[in-house]
Amino acid sequence: MYNSIFNQMQPLDGVSDIEYEIGLNLREQSSLVNFQVWYLRDKDWEGYLENGLELSQLRLRVHELGNLGLPPNMIIPVNEILKEKAFLTYIDEHHLEFQMDAITSSQYLVEALGTISGFVFLLFILMFASEILIFEARHKSVLKGIPLSFMSKVHSKVMVSFICISLFLLVGFGLGGLFAAWQSSPGDFAAPVVIYQGGEFIAISTLKFYLLVMIGFFLVTVFLLYLTVLLNIVFKNAYATIMFGLGVFFIPDIFSSVGLHVSWLHTIKLIDIHAILLGNSTVQYSFSQIDYTYALIAIFIATLIIISVIYGINKKNYLEKFKQKEPSSQS
Fold this sequence. Notes:
The protein is mostly helical. The chain is built from 14 helices and 2 strands. It folds into 2 domains: 2-76, no CATH class; 105-327, no CATH class.
C-alpha cells in the first residue's frame, strides 16, 4: 500500500510544510510496517505491539494534517485506526499473547452472534410468536379457562415465550462453542473485542462482549414479543404480523435505496444489538452518540410504550363492550 502511495506522490522538494511532514510520516509508517512483518516472523510480540501503537499515532497525525496529497483510496478511515489502537492497547495492558489460530471458538461465537443479530433474530421471534394471542382464540389452551385479566394473560404468554427463546439461545451457543472448540481451537475468552461505547472505541474481553450481547438479546426478545402481541391485536393474522414486522425493519433500507435518507427512521435498527456494540450500525452513522447503553434504554422505553398501547387498546375495547351492554340491560 505504501509503495502505491509513494508512486502517486510528488517529490518532497518544493512542497508545503504540511505535505513535507506527511511525506516523512508515511516513510516512517512504511518502515514500521516492514518491522512488524519481521516481528511476526520472529514472534516478538512486544516489538510488534510497540510498533503497532506508534503506527496508529502516525496514522492519526496524518488525519490531523488533513491527508493532504494522499489519494482517497489510500486513506485509512479514522475508525479503523482507533479500533486497532484500542485492540493493541488492551493486549499490552493485560499482557496477553496474540492468538495465531485463524478460527477459534471465541472468535466463532462473536461471528455467530453477529450472524443472527438484527434481521435473522427479528424473523425468528416473529415466526415463533406470530400467533401468541390469536392461537388461543382458535384452539384450546391452558389459559383459556383460567379467570385471568387480559394483561395478565399477555404477560404470562410473553414470559413463557421469553423463557423458551432464552433457553434456545443459551443451549444453541453453548453447543456451538463446544463444537467450534472441538473442530478448531478453544481460543481465549480473555482476547479483546473492540466495541463502541461513550463516543469512543474501547476493547473488552470476548467473555464480557458475549455477556453484553446476550443481555441485549434478552431485552430485544422482550421488546419484540410485546410488539408481536400488539400486531396480533391489530391484524389478528399471523402472516400479517410477520410481514408488517419485517416491513418496518426494512423501511430505512427502502428509503435509502431510492435516495432518501431519513435519519430518525434508522432508529429501528437499534434491535441489531451486535452491530450497535461494534459501532457498525447504520443508525450510528446518523447519531454518533448512540451506543450500547443508549440502545438498551431506548428499547426498554419502547417496550413500556408498547405495553401501554396494548393496555389502552384493551381498555378501549372493554369500554365499548360495556356501553353496548348498557342499553340492553336497561330495556
